[in-house]
Amino acid sequence: MPKRPRKRRGIFALSFIALGSIGCCAAVIAILYIGLPNAVGRIGEPAPELDPIDRLFLTGYLWLNISAIDTPAGDTPLQYELEVMQGENATSVVGKLKTAGVIEDDALLRNFLQYRGYDRGIEAGTYTLHGGMTIREISLVLQKADPQAIHFVVLEGWRREQIAEAIDIQGLSFSSLGYLEASQRVPNHFAFSEHMPVFATLEGFLFPDTYSISPEMDAENFIERVLENFGSRITAEIISGFERQGLDIYEGITLASILEREAVISDERDLIASVFINRYNIGMKLEADPTVQYALGQQVDGSWWKAPLTFDDLDIDSPYNTYRYPGLPPGPIANPGLDSIEAVAFPAQSSYLYFRAACDGSGRHNFSNTFEEHQRFACE
Fold first, then answer.
1. pLDDT: is 298 or 43 the higher one?
2. N or C end of the chain: which has fewer CB within 10 A?
């Protein structure tokens, strides 16, 4: 996890509001009475970067909870494999442990991590924990990820089969065939399964990210982790954004997958999204090349996204061909990243109905309201 400087005061205002003013005073009085060195001797050395006020209040809080620091922290003796994603912060990590039952008091672990400076030492990777561990033991384990784990990257815009190819290349603990079988069906317990048609696969919901794969992980476990990651990224605001565009979660991800394959320049995503949504709302064909590429499938050279397309390609009779059929294709054509998902949920406000790649090779597009304007941007 990147070590970023951050403001550390203010977090304790929330912690000590929860304790109440009496608790705050008791903590300070306790420290003044027993002496700071005595408390530090029991709790451990504080992080050097803590300012004096944070240090005083944190020491007091932890001293009042000293017995809980060195007793089992959770309500389950079962082993739990924690996956920490790249860029994930300590608060999110603690939340996962709380949900899994590894800890009962999330505030205690969060404050202990911050007091010791361990919150900045949690790296992306896999950690094996269980509820019989103490807060102190958990904090130490979180400083060292499993060295045997393989970091596996799922790129934005990959389709299921491309992920399978990467699994074979990296030689993970499970096979690409096992992964394809596991991702072919939607688990009933998946948070968004009720919004997905019976024929749906997990295409579009295999969230692009870096995953830590342990030697014991199987394909089902990997899929569970990917779907958990997806669920953590799709906020209520995103779902509401989809609904404002007249889309449910499945339709929103389908359109985001098309956008992921269309957009080259990041700052154009919300504008391209607006074009697709404008077309969709008036019943106009989307005419998106990536949907045709998806329908064509793998090419003789092994590539999955044929380019350039021919006029014959654009006439392929497939429900995924948005040049032939209006509306959205039956499902996602790739796995979109968060930027594309958010662009569909919160598109730019425009009246554009057309866009075309600029002729300068920059990857940017020219946008038009009418077909006549659109034609004028054709390259010679």
1. 298
2. C
